[in-house]
Amino acid sequence: MEKAIRVLLLEDSDADADLILSELRRAGYSVEAERVETDEDLRQALEQSWDILLADYTLPTFDAPRALALLRELELDLPVIVVSGSIGEQIAIECLKNGAADYLSKDRLGHLGTAVQSALLERTLKQERCRANAELREREEMYRSLFESMDEGILYHAADGRVLSANPSVERILGIPLRILKGRTSIDPGGKAINAEGLPLPTDSQPHFAALRSRQPVRDILMGVWNARENARRWVLASSVPLFRSTERAPYQAITTLVDVTERRKIEEEQAFMVTAIEQAAESFIITDTDGTVRYANPAFTTTTGYELHEIIGKSIGLIVSEKSDPELSADLQTTIRQGKTWQGVVLNRRKDGTDYQEEITISPVRNAAGAVMGYVSAQRDVTQEMELQHRLQQSQKMDAVGRFATGIAHDFNNILQAIAGFNDMACEELDPEHPVQEHLHEVASASEKAAELIRQLLDFGSRAPSHQRLINPGTIVGDLAAMLRRVIGEDIELDLQIDASTWTIAGDPAQIEQAVMNLCVNARDAMPDGGTLTLRVENHQVDAEMAARIPKASEGPAVCITVRNNGPGMPPEVRDRIFEPFFSSKEQSGGAGMGLATVYTIVENHGGFIRLDSEPGEGTAFHLFLPAKETDAIQSPGDDANSVKLTGGNETILLAEDDEQARRLAMLILENAGYTVLPAGSGEEAIELFNEHRDSIALAALDVIMPGKSGKAVFEAIRLSGSTIPVLFMTGYSFYKLDSADAPGEQLHLLMKPFRPRELLTRIQTLLGVRT
Fold it and tell me: What are the start-end ranges of the H helices in 323-436?
């Protein structure tokens, strides 16, 4: 049967190549061959797999020695037979030294088949030797790694008991360096070894001597050895096996293993303690068999469920499962534990008194020595309050996210509204007062004011920041809310509105006062699901010393009292005492986040006021908000004198920094129409460059607070660092932004809120420039 062979020929003669291949076929080979002549051809051909290379010694541009060198360079194990027409003995020997398997003269090709067979056989034998050596090294390395990495200590003893070698674990267990232990006859050179009864264990009674004497294995001898490094005793299970040569009856060595059971003994001693700990644990521990029958429960189970232990032992664990529990969750639990896996999750269980509670449980399989599941152990913890807090936290985080979203939208819309309101005002100024379009423009202005107030509320909601207070009349605010309140509370609730026409003013934020009143009215509506009367009263009140002493955070003096009263069922003391706590709610689940009254409390407190609550079961509920009154000139409302300012008359140069193009263009038109020269900048960096170029002519800087890159504050700092003392007016659409005196010690900082009217901008600028008209 022909033997298939792949032959690579390094030969420049077609005739010689044909002769070589013919001789191989005559020798019984089925030949697949390729002929190459150059270094490049050979390199490319060697990318394939070949059985043998038959190389002519000398070619016009290449030769056999260089071919052998190339094979060494590429580290290829390919047999090479040099076949040449003129090759001397010395050259042939050099070829063999350089790696050739054989050499033949072309006039003796009759030996080619034998030479090829020998070369291939030698290659096969070489590969087998390499493979065997590699396997031997791998096996030796495996045994060495196993010997050195085993947790068990392993010692080899000579026939006279001396320690010949040991692995690193022996040093750890005995606390003795291996170099000291070698040559010793005792496992415990310190002479402190003891047996299981605590009696001394002499050297000749130790397991390796017993095995050498008896010629039988000695297993699991419990002995205590002294660890010199730790200065403490360790307990080991020692086993020793005698080793025999095939032709001898006496053992020539013994091998001893030491299993450190010190921790196991500690565990055994601690098992009783652990049982006691489980009995006293705050969490419930339950052990059931595979069908869910309870075999054990600790006392905490009684505390959590109300069932005595004798009422649950021998009963199904399903006794405590709530009828409201999630069927899919229960199915997943059953599927998981039946697969022998651990299940973790939160389930709804029921106490003996019928109340439901949420419990975090971990159920793990209990297996016997064969790995079969014998039952389950469950660790359970009542997490009802934690889950409630987590739910409320998630609600709070959701509201924060909504707030951030609202802030972003409102701020962007603020710049748009700035342009709408500003250009509308300029149109009003340019048209004749009797022009028929004026009526439409006034409607746009009115709508812009309402939109501005709505945006400011969105910004305040998103920022959770202190309000911007001004002089307001609570009676007017509550009166304006009446129409909306009637839609909110519904037709089955009567609104009794009582507002004192001479209500004092307060320093406050109208949006937050509206929010507080709205929250209380919604709360009152929810307290009267079957209808009733909601009384909303605003009146002046003089807080006397007796009331101030009786109510926390109350102070004497004039105040405006806003009362929201409902004739609902009232509150029991336990609810009344907690009604202002964040997240506390007396409503059914999903009836509210429990933040409404907490928000009211915060708003009133931020306004320097206090709340009095009157409520008894069956007598309704009344919230009285006391807000300190202010003198009418205590706070100047923004833009109070805006209408007294002319829209013309300025001739100074103003640096204007505003990144919103439309808002910047509006401010430029307002200022230029008033006669000012404006240097506009679309960024903080550009504003600083303009200031440095025109600092001697700039009379005032109007800076947007928040800009990409350098902020308005950064521009302000650059102006001051230059030594300039020109007045600076900050502008912002963020209602939560507050200028801090720490930003500019010794200076009074000025802030104009967007959207502003043209007259407001001119008023502030003329005031800062010291120009009054």
Answer: 327-338, 384-430
